[in-house]
Amino acid sequence: MDESGRNDGHGRSRGKISPILWLTAVFATAHLLVSMKSSVRYPRAEDCQNRDDRYQGGGGGDDPFDEMHRRLYAMMMTNGRPGGDRSSAARKEYTPDMIPKSSGGLHDSDRMLLGRLYRNASSVFEFGLGESTSIASYVGVPRYSGVDSDAVWVRKARERSGANDRFHFTFADIGPTGPWGYPENNATAKIPYSYQTAPLYDELEPFDVYFVDGRYRVACICSSMLHAMSRGANMSFVLFGMHDWGREWYKVVLEVGDIVHESKHLVVLRARPNATKSNIGKIWEDHIWDPR
Question: Mean pLDDT for the chain?
Answer without folding.
Answer: 82
